[in-house]
Amino acid sequence: MMVFYTFREQRIFGLVTLAAVGSLILSLRFKYLTWGDSWNEYAMILRILEYESLAIEVYPSQQPAMHLIVANLAMITQINPMSLMKFIIPIFSIFSIIFLYKFVNDFFGDKDLGLLASLLLLTGTPYLHWTTQAVREALGIPMFIMAFYFAYKSLKSPKLQNIIVSIILISGLILTHNFSSAIFIISWLSFSIIHVYIYGKTRNFVSSLAILLFTTIIAAGWWSLTKAPVSYIVKSLEIILPGSPLIILTIFITIIYAVPYFFPIFKDVFKKTLKEFLSFKIIKVLIILITISLAIASTDLVRGKLFLILHYPIPMLFNGFFMIILSLVGLYFSLNLRGLPILFWIAAITLPFILSIFRFIPFGDPLRFMDHLYIPLAIVSAVGLKQIFMNIPQRGLQSGIIALFATISLVTAFPSVVLWGSMFEKGHMLFDDRGYIIQHDTSEKKAIDWIGKYYVFEGNTKPHVFSDNYVIYASKSINLRDELILDNRKFPIPANFFKEDYTLPLVYSNKINYFLITERMSKYAEFAEGMMHERSFIKKDQIDKFNEHSNLIYDDGSAKIYYIQK
Amino acid sequence: MCMIMQSFNNKSIFLIVSIIITLSLIVHIERINTDDPLTEFYVLTEKNQAGGYPLTISVGESGVVTVGVVNHEFKDQNYILAMIYEDKINKHLITLKSSEKWEKKVNLNFGIVGDHKVEFLLFKGKIESEEPYRRLFLMFDVGDRDE
């Protein structure tokens, strides 16, 4: 509200302040890293510090930008890398907000629209989820937006400096986060092609194609070199286009980009036809109806009605629900030549998102598309919000609405334990089982560190550490030498542990087996099956079996380590 | 008062508020960086390792383990350690300063063949009749000397 109303003349200053405070919510609230992914990043940073190498054998992530930043800072300042990454990485997300504002301002020539889009992105639930954690996404999302902004600048005005800056940022993006760079390629392809066809001049065609080809070739090369999981895209292309798929695609895309330049008449006809096509109200209604259907499918996914088993509370969907409403209004007013590049950008991310929802393409967690989808969605929603505000002349009321929307979005984006301080009872409308796993307590950390300090590795068989997903994530930092097998599959029954009927054959030969069980697991435990199955918990009879058939070698209150040796 | 207020522009107010927020955040970070109070209670082998415990031994043979207590309660703390096996109870009074660690090697001898559960109970304070504060156990398979 302060930003929108009082500080209209210092928009960027206000946005930076809001973005900085927003990004540090979890870092300020919890002692350790949150969720699971940030622990993986922490382990990668420790591996770089331990081995002083980026070789794939010791550093499997192979997305080194964030890890190198923190590792180098830790070496220079001698500050614990966990504290550094907790407070430094989320802060980078400030750049997303600044550059989205600049992009919208440049694209639409409207500062108010830029401000609204930035505020909507800043309070978006998926955006907040990722940028408040010390993970690659918190760096990847701002890099994505900055790279997109400078790529757009090169498209509009292909000065060498713009192209160089965008190439540097794209390279940084590729080194930061594979998924963000893949999304960048499809986003830029769709955005720039339609831009070239609508506003195309020779220079547009050359610079946008150069950026696309540079990104695709460098990213594909990097993914293949580092054996990144995302390189399956390149492998899939090899099946569809046998021979040299990248060369065939390059020729094909170059032809598409070059058509408006070599055949201006085609461009004029295309533009005219498109304009007439969009002038039909029935077309607009049809597109809006399709969008509503897709929005329902996405909502069903988030609510766990499709194949993912999710337990988000209804209030958490507040932001998504209003963003859908605003984006539908915005869509109606963006279905014109001006708004089309943004809509194509949305479509480029929505297509794989929807295909992965219905499992036409293999992608474990389709929700991962949401954080990038929210970027163009915030722009279209801002268009919708601005149209609504045209009917509300009082600026104070406009500010009040934004403040209310932002506050509710911020509060409902996280489990109640973050801002409320405690969890609601099961069955309560605000009960959110993510509250169990967003934080890792001292007791769990001490137990993990204890295993790290005292485990026995004799070189023959590696000791096994069994626990649930979140403890195993946090345990990666004690396994820098790969001397442990960290196992997040379901707990075996201790009595059957070495018997033939046991379903996990990997443990047969193991001499030493640790089972780290925390108090939290009696309420919520998540094993390797992840979002495909109902969440489970460690039942009392399972604990009884451990008490009967194993040894209890560590107890710090809420974390216990059971032990079985052959 | 009004003149003073007028002399502040939006930027100055924002700056003052930012400084107050920053100072509060520093205090808050300092507070959250404090661990939750707890006591670690553990059992290791004679060589201070968490693996290769002498769980299979013979009657009369000594099994040595190390029992450890670390006080992270942020205050001096009295503990009573009780070891229970073969209907015997051995007690130790332990006083630890904050962050202090106590470790002791314990000899375990069994006179009866069979499965034995050795319990290590840690009580906080002086009253040992209440529920133990921490509890550990090892399962021993005690065989005949000739086996």
Describe the structure.
The complex is a heterodimer of chains A (566) and B (147). With 566 residues, chain A is mainly alpha-helical. Chain A has two domains: 2-419, no CATH class; 442-565, no CATH class. Chain A is 62% helix and 4% strand. Chain A has a five-stranded mixed β-sheet, with helices on both faces. In chain A, helix 2 (11-23) packs antiparallel against helix 7, helix 9 (125-131) packs across helix 21 (395-413) and helix 11 runs parallel beside helix 13 (202-225). The radius of gyration of chain A is 25 Å and the shape is globular. Residues 500-506 of chain A have low confidence and may be disordered. By secondary structure, chain B is of the alpha+beta class. Helices cover 20% and strands 48% of the residues of chain B. In chain B, strand 4 (77-85) and strand 5 (88-96) form a beta hairpin. Chain B is elongated. The N and C termini of chain B lie far apart (95 Å). The relative contact order of chain B is 0.20. The interface between A and B is large, with 38 and 34 residues. Strand 4 of chain A pairs antiparallel with strand 1 of chain B, so a sheet runs across the interface.
User: Which of globular, elongated, flat, extended, rod-shaped describes the shape of chain A?
Assistant: globular
Give the radius of gyration of chain A. Answer: 25 Å
The end-to-end distance of chain A, rounded to whole angstroms, is 64 Å
Q: Report mean pLDDT of chain A, rounded to a whole number.
A: 89
